[in-house]
Inverse folding.
C-alpha cells in the first residue's frame, strides 16, 4: 500500500501520478477512484496528463483511450492493456495497493 | 468491389487495410510496398531508434497475427511503377500487373536530397545514419532546422557529437509554429550546446564541409539533410489522377477518378497536405468508407496535430497558425521550456502549442475553434 494524497487533494476530474515500482496514475472519475499504470502501453506518455471522460482516460500523445476499470484500450494505436490497481480510502487518505489487480503481459 | 489494391505499406497503407476489413470488405486485398519491411513506425527513427534505446522489433506497427488476420496479399519490396485508370491495372516493378477495382494511394513522401548529405526517411536510412553517428564521427552538420533536422541534431548531441544546424529561414519552424514559438525552438539547440546558423543557405557539400551562401565553410565529418519531403506521386504520371503538390482529394480523400482514394503524406485533402502521423492514421478509415460507398459519405475535419521530441522536450501542436493575432501563454513560461500557449485570431483559439506540458495541452485543445478563450490574460 502506498499513500497517494488526501481525498480533498484529488477532486473529481483530477489525477495524480505516484512513483511506485512503476509510475501509477490515480484518477477521480466523478467521485470514483481508480488507479492504473501511468505510462501508456503504446509509447512514452503519462496517462495522468490525459483527458478524463467518464471512466475513460485519453492518452495525451496519440489519443488511445483506456478504460479505468479494466485497463483495456478502446483502439489503436495502443494494443495492450495497462495494469489496474486497487484503491482504498482510509480516514480521508487515498492509498493504492501496488500489487496489480490483474497482471498483463 | 472485388479487388482493392493499397499502394504503400506504411502507416496510412496499413491503417487502410485494417479499415477495409473492419468495415466489412471481404474481397481480395493486395498491399504493395516498395520497402522490404512489414509496416513500421517512422517517428522513432530520428528519436529513440537513432539513439539506440529501442530496437527494430519494437518499431512494428502490427504483429504477425494481426497482419495474418487481415488476409491480404503483401507484395513487399515491389514498387508500383504505373497506374492505368482505364484498364484499372497497376503495373509493378517485378513485371507483374495487378487488376483492381479500388485503389488506395498511400505512397507517402520521399525526402528532398542534398548531394553529399544523408537523408532520413526509412528504416534503412536510420540504420545507415546510426552507423555513421556511432562510427567515430565527431562533427555533424544538419541542414534544415525543421522537426526531423532538430531531432537528429538532438540525438547526435546525446551521442556526444559536435553539432551545427544550418537553417535558411531567419527563425526555425517559423512557418509552422510562428516566429515567437519558432524562436523558442531555436533556443533549445543553444541550450544543449548545438550551434545554430539561421538565415543562411547552403551552396554545396564539399570535401572540406558545408559551404554556406555567405562564404563560410562548416567543417563536417558527416552531413545530414532534413529539408522536407515531396509527395511520392511520380508513379501516377499519365494515370489521369489529378496531382499538384500531392494527390488532389476532397475532404474525404476522394480523387477525381472513381474508385481511387488517397491517404497520408501523399494526399492533399481540400488543399492541405498534412505530413503528420495522426492525420495519416485518421484519414485511412474515412477514405476507405468513401471508397466502399462510391461517394463522399464521410469527411475528415479534425485539426492537424503533431508532436516532436527533442533535447528532452516534448513539443505538441494542434490547429493552425495562419494569420493569428497573438500567442498567449496560459501556463508556464518559454524560459522554463515548460509551457502551454494558444494562438488567437479574433480572440478565438486557432492553435495550441506546448512544451513539456501535455496536461495543459490536452485541456486547451478542447477549446480549439468554437469558444473564445476562457482563461484571463496574464
Ligand atoms: C524520421 C521521421 C520522424 C517523424 N516524426 C514524427 C513525429 O514525431 N510526429 C509526427 O506527427 N510525425 C512524424 N513523422 C511523420 C510521419 O511518420 C508520417 O506522417 C507518416 O509516416 C506518414 O505515413 P504514410 O503512410 O502516409 O507515408 P510513409 O510513411 O512515407 O509511407 C509511404 C510508403 O509507401 C512506399 N512507396 C512510395 N512509393 C511507392 C510506390 N510507387 N510503390 C510502392 N510503395 C511505394 C514508401 O516506400 C513507404 O514505405 C516523422 C517522419 C519521419 C521520416
Ligand atoms: S503513447 Fe499513448 S497512444 Fe501513443
Amino acid at each position: 500500500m502506498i499513500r497517494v494524497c488526501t481525498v480533498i487533494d484529488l477532486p473529481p476530474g483530477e489525477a495524480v501520478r505516484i512513483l511506485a515500482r512503476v509510475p501509477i496514475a490515480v484518477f477521480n472519475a466523478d467521485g470514483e477512484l481508480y488507479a492504473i499504470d501511468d505510462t501508456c502501453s503504446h509509447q512514452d506518455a503519462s496517462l495522468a496528463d490525459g483527458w478524463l471522460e467518464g471512466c475513460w482516460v485519453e492518452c495525451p500523445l496519440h489519443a488511445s483511450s483506456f478504460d479505468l476499470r479494466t485497463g483495456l484500450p478502446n483502439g489503436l494505436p495502443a494494443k495492450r492493456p495497462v495494469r489496474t490497481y486497487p484503491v482504498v480510502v482510509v480516514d480521508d487518505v487515498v492509498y493504492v495497493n501496488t500489487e496489480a489487480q490483474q497482471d498483463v503481459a | 468491389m472485388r479487388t482493392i489494391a493499397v499502394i504503400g505499406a506504411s502507416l496510412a497503407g496499413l491503417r487502410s487495410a485494417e479499415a477495409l476489413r473492419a468495415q466489412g470488405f471481404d474481397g481480395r486485398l493486395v498491399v504493395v510496398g516498395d520497402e522490404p519491411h512489414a509496416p513500421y513506425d517512422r517517428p522513432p527513427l530520428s528519436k529513440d531508434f537513432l539513439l539506440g534505446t529501442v530496437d527494430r522489433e519494437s518499431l512494428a506497427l502490427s504483429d504477425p497475427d494481426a497482419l495474418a488476420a487481415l488476409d491480404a496479399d503483401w507484395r513487399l519490396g515491389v514498387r508500383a511503377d504505373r497506374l492505368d485508370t482505364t484498364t484499372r491495372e497497376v503495373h509493378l516493378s517485378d513485371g507483374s500487373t495487378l487488376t483492381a477495382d479500388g485503389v488506395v494511394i498511400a505512397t507517402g513522401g520521399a525526402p528532398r536530397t542534398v548531394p553529399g548529405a544523408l537523408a532520413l526517411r526509412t528504416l534503412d536510412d536510420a540504420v545507415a545514419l546510426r552507423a555513421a553517428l556511432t562510427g567515430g564521427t565527431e562533427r555533424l552538420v544538419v541542414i534544415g532546422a525543421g522537426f526531423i533536422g532538430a531531432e537528429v541534431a538532438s540525438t547526435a548531441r546525446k551521442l556526444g557529437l559536435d553539432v551545427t544546424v544550418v537553417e535558411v529561414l531567419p527563425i526555425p519552424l517559423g512557418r509552422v509554429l510562428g516566429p515567437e514559438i519558432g524562436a523558442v525552438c531555436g533556443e533549445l539547440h543553444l541550450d544543449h550546446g548545438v550551434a545554430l546558423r539561421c538565415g543562411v543557405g547552403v551552396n554545396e557539400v564539399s570535401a572540406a564541409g558545408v559551404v554556406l551562401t555567405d562564404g563560410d565553410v562548416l567543417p563536417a565529418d558527416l552531413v545530414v539533410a532534413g529539408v522536407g519531403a515531396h509527395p511520392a506521386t511520380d508513379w501516377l504520371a499519365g494515370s489521369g489522377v489529378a496531382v499538384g503538390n500531392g494527390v488532389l482529394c476532397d475532404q474525404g480523400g476522394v480523387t477525381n477518378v472513381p474508385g481511387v482514394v488517397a491517404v497520408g503524406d501523399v494526399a492533399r485533402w481540400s488543399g492541405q497536405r498534412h505530413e503528420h502521423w495522426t492525420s495519416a492514421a485518421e484519414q485511412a478509415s474515412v477514405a476507405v468508407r468513401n471508397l466502399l460507398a462510391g461517394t463522399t459519405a464521410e469527411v475528415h475535419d479534425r485539426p492537424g496535430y503533431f508532436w516532436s521530441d527533442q533535447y528532452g522536450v516534448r513539443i505538441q501542436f494542434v490547429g493552425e497558425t495562419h494569420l493569428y493575432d497573438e500567442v498567449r501563454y496560459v501556463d508556464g513560461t518559454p524560459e522554463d521550456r515548460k509551457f502551454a500557449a494558444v494562438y488567437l485570431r479574433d480572440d478565438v483559439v486557432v492553435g495550441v502549442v506546448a512544451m513539456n506540458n501535455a496536461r495543459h495541452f490536452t485541456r486547451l485543445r478542447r477549446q480549439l475553434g468554437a469558444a473564445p478563450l476562457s482563461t484571463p490574460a496574464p
